[in-house]
Design a protein that fits this description.
The protein is an alpha/beta fold. It contains 16 helices and five strands. It folds into two domains: 25-220, 3-Layer(aba) Sandwich (Rossmann fold), CATH 3.40.50.300; 291-368. α4 packs parallel to α6 (126-136) and α13 (306-317) crosses α16. Bound molecules: adenosine-5'-diphosphate and magnesium ion.
Length: 368
């Protein structure tokens, strides 16, 4: 039962899954697993609800089970900043690794209160602790930093540590595999596109070139309408529901190809929930998360104009032109464009200012 009601071939939850429970990501699974093994550090990008977290956790777990990999997963968004990222990583590290680090930590005369928790001290920069952790983990390890983009300026602290660890070990072969995730390539540009002499703003010794150390890249797009329909249809049939073509087409449209929406619908439909009820749950539990994140993004970036911008965005999602949305809300067209460009960086819109998934448009129509 661990994998859910149908042995999880369809409609998995967000918990770690067997790889055959992940639909439509065969290539991405292969690439991630191969990159972890070959120590090709990799950025996994994809908009919200495309399945990054589930994919990366499930691949790591697969390697743990089949090949004994040590896996270390940190959601940087939950951690909130670099220091807490490091604390979390240390807390989750295997006991054997912590033991090996202890001597080093004692030497630095630190307060190691007990073996399972470590209180970061002002005397020990988190960079040092993380560097020690990376260089102590066994070679067959993988570190996952989910939502690494939330580090913002602190990204340089992380890339600096990576650089130091690489310099010490001489090659990535002797370091853990590394997967970082974020919504778009722009959001993880420091990893995908290190400058010629280092990563981002990291200060490295002059003249040392860093070419050829770029990250690999795997991108998750929403599913096509056809794939979404087929997935839903087959999954529902598997649990004994025989949906009409109309239902399948409607739900695929609402989902905009987002696996999170399709699996959510499928799970509850298989449990016998009424269709309308599930659709309103999708709005209340999933689309509300999109609205919340977009609200936070806009508030932080445009503190003074946020309410008018929410309105402008909801108009835009309903098909109103930028010019008209600007006119109706009294926000300058330039500011509306700036907001839309911010949302491009966050993976909600594509370069052509269209919504990456129609589901995001549906979600923000209700923004206020
Ligand atoms: N490949 C997949 N096949 C089926 N359902 C999936 C797949 N990937 C994700 N899901 C569903 O989507 C939900 C959200 O995925 P998640 O990994 O949290 O997305 P992200 O991290 O990109 O926001 C999961 O809980 C699961 O229900
Ligand atoms: Mg995620």
């Amino acid at each position: 039962m661990e994998d859910g009601i149908m042995g999880c071939k369809y409609f998995p939850t967000s918990r770690v899954q067997r790889l055959n429970c992940l639909a439509g990501r065969d290539e991405e699974i292969e690439t991630l697993a191969a990159n972890i093994k070959s120590k090709t550090w990799t950025a996994l990008t994809g908009s919200k609800f495309t399945g990054k977290t589930l994919l990366v956790k499930s691949v790591a777990e697969y390697l743990r089970k089949t090949e004994g990999y040590v896996t270390l997963y940190v959601d940087v968004k939950t951690a909130g900043n670099f220091e807490r990222l490091v604390e979390t990583a240390y807390r989750k590290a295997p006991m054997t690794v912590k033991r090996r680090m202890e001597l080093f930590l004692f030497r630095k005369s630190l307060d190691v209160t007990n073996r399972s928790s470590f209180k970061a001290q002002e005397t020990l920069p988190p960079q040092i602790l993380f560097w020690k952790l990376l260089t102590t983990l066994p070679e067959q390890s993988v570190v996952v930093l989910d939502n690494v983009h939330v580090l913002g300026r602190e990204t340089a602290l992380l890339t600096g540590v990576l650089w130091d660890a690489l310099n010490e070990k001489g090659s990535r072969k002797h370091l853990p595999g590394l997967i970082v995730t974020g919504p778009t390539p722009q959001a993880v540009l420091h990893f995908l596109n290190p400058s010629e002499i280092g990563w981002g703003s990291v200060d490295i010794s002059k003249g040392t070139h860093f070419v050829g150390r770029e990250f690999g890249h795997v991108h998750l797009a929403p599913w096509s309408d056809e794939f979404s329909r087929r997935y839903l249809y087959e999954g529902l049939a598997e649990c004994g529901v025989s949906p009409s073509m109309r239902e399948v087409a409607h739900v695929a449209e609402v989902s905009g190809g987002l696996p999170a929406v399709l699996s959510f619908y499928g799970r509850f439909r298989c449990r016998g929930y009424p269709r309308d009820r599930i659709l309103s749950m999708i709005d209340g539990r999933l689309f509300s998360q999109v609205r919340r994140e977009i609200r936070d993004i806009i508030k932080e970036r445009f503190p003074k104009k946020n309410t008018s911008l929410f309105k402008a965005l909801s108009l835009y999602a309903r098909g109103v032109s930028i010019r008209e949305a600007s006119h109706r809300t009294g926000v300058s067209r330039q500011t509306v464009y700036e907001m839309l460009r911010t949302l491009i960086e966050w993976g909600y819109l594509n370069e052509g200012y269209g919504f990456v998934s129609p589901a995001y448009a549906r979600a923000v129509m209700k923004l206020r």
